[in-house]
Write a structure and sequence with these properties.
CATH class of the largest domain: Alpha Beta
Strand content: 15-25%
CATH topology of the largest domain: TIM Barrel
Shape: elongated
Number of strands: 27
CATH architecture of the largest domain: Alpha-Beta Barrel
Number of domains: 4
Distance between the termini: 156 Å
Helix content: 40-55%
CATH superfamily of the largest domain: EAL domain
Number of helices: 28
Largest sheet: 8 strands, mixed, barrel
Oligomer: single chain
Structural class: alpha/beta
Strand order of the largest sheet: 18-19-21-22-23-24-25-26
Amino acid sequence: MKTSVSWLGTRYGSQIDHSQGGAAETQEDSEAKVLVVDDEPRMRSSVADLLMAYGHECQLAANGEEALRVLGAGAVDLVLLDLNMPEMDGFQVMRDIQEKYQDTDVIVISGETTFESATEALRSGAQDFLRKPYSPDELIRVVDNLLRKRQLEKNLKEMNRCLEASENRYRFIVNNSPDIIYMLDNEGRFAFLNERAQSLLGYNTEFLLGMHYSQLVHKEDMEKARYVFDERRTGSRASQNIELRLLCRGSELPYRYFESKSITIELSAMGIYTPEQEEREREFVGTYGVARDISERKRAEEVIKFQLYHDLLTKLPNRELFRDRLNLAISQARRNKANLAVMFLDMDRFKVINDSLGHLAGDQLLQTVASRLHSCLRDGDTLARVGGDEFNLLVPGIEGRDAAAMVAKKIIDRLKEPVILDGYEVFVSFSIGIALFPEDGQTIDALIKNADMAMYHIKAHGKNGYEFFSDNMKATFQRQLSLENGIRKAIEKKQFELFFQPQFDIGSGRVCGMEALIRWNHPERGLLLPGQFIPLSEETGLIIEIGNWVLDRCCRELKHWRSAGYDDVTLAINISAAQLVQSEFERSFLDALDKHGIPGGQLEIEITENMLMQDMDQAVNKFQRLAASGVRVAVDDFGIGYSSLSYLHALPLNTLKIDRSFITGIQSPQDRNSIVTAVFAMARELGLEIVAEGVEKQAQLEYLRNLDGCRAQGFFLGHPLPASEAITLLRQNA
């Protein structure tokens, strides 16, 4: 039996080698677990030997019950089943296999050769039927065919599984893509749309299928869409990153209507064609495209562009956009021989409001004012914020001065209404300078500069009004510019000089102090008084450097006086508001005293009431630190500033200086001046010294002498003296 099996195997193997491409190719496919079920032992054994010769794993069962036990113990690929068996026949076994082991195939091998038996076997689930006796070749062929069929079915199932998994991955990727993915047919109608289309456009994808793409495209982009949305080109010539707008469905509109709301997309598309064939050319099938929503990016770009050319606080155009529009307006006015006006608007007292109520309130004020200004203008006018509280206004197509004056008056009248900030009524006003094209300038810079000059002119003459540019303003401006440059050179070339006006104790008649007064030895204009250059120095910030020079020069002079034995003379020095706000204000005073070895009690700082009221808390803190080192503090021009006297308790004051306007009115020693008398009484009550300024008559001196305990200064007592004459006066007085 073994010899016959070997021969059969060799014979069948060579047959497979020639007909199927080699045993090595079919070996893997034919290896299987086979269960041989037959009640004849010799038949079971011979079949098993034959199948194992071809590499199959065989198990044997003598009857149906044993076969079912083997099937229940593990997977079996193929059952070779005899029909006629005791107790449980093959039909019963096949019914159990169909019910419980659907993945197991059955080949019936039976001596029952009737047509009815074969038919019944096939109906019961048998894959093939062999009649006993059979040849080994026939058995191997039938088994091999069935195993190959099983392998093909297995491969097909795996292929279907892979295809299904691939399709699921594709659907997941496409439907979860952040982009709209679409396909058009050859008529430009949607054949496919992913789910992203619904979330972006607001339309169900089923509704869009079959719709022509043009119904989704913004009408202004339709011409461009004709060449890119329904793309027919492929490769490098296909559309890439083309910007279009697509219409969206609004939730308040019926399902079938579009609204004007749109999104911006970046479109890439290519044509789809049938494969090339020899008999005919490729046929256009449709378009495949990807549309990316770039609305957020476009909005971000618009925000950046807006920020480049607008003021973020007021949303008005900024300086760059104003100049661009002015340039265009000048070109049009020149071409049409028309006029235009440029106005420079500066808010009056904005710094006081900003410092008093805070920067947040200041910002709210600017926004309110910008809105009111804008309401006064025509559509073609341009209002721009060019600085903190500065605005430029372009009024094109204006007829002349009268029309420009009407615009300025309208602005001033509109701003008369109060603005409510933090519960306070705030009144604002503007100083407006006006320059007209072409008579006041024919370039951007000339018009803006001349309007600026006119604005400063109205600032210097009462504010809250408007002024047209004139040529004499240019001369004034040039003088101001020349004066500013002269001040800078005076600091470098040390052209400033200190004069000292004596203060006398009226009771004893001796010099008890001096006030330092600055003069400018101008190389062309001679000796200039402070009123001729100090205001401009404060405006330009040069007062800081001048103030530092005055402080150092005063300490040096005090040192000279002390070395001469006059260590009981107090020297008063005036400071500006710009100096007071400096963070190192008190430190600079103390450093100067240490540098020259001067005790603090010999230096007196003079401040005005108005200066104190700008920032009382800051002033109190700084003067208290100076007072701790002995530095004296005096209030200059007392009585003409703020009416609140609470600062007299808050500040470490030593002296009140009565303003000259109260002294000038005294004509005889018997005059009754209740204000001067009241100030003297208040000063004594507070323990403060009194200095009367502007004493220019004997009667005024006699009046003050009657009040007792007063110091005085003025031309009647002594003019301001150069340093050399001041030391001489101290010697004579001693």
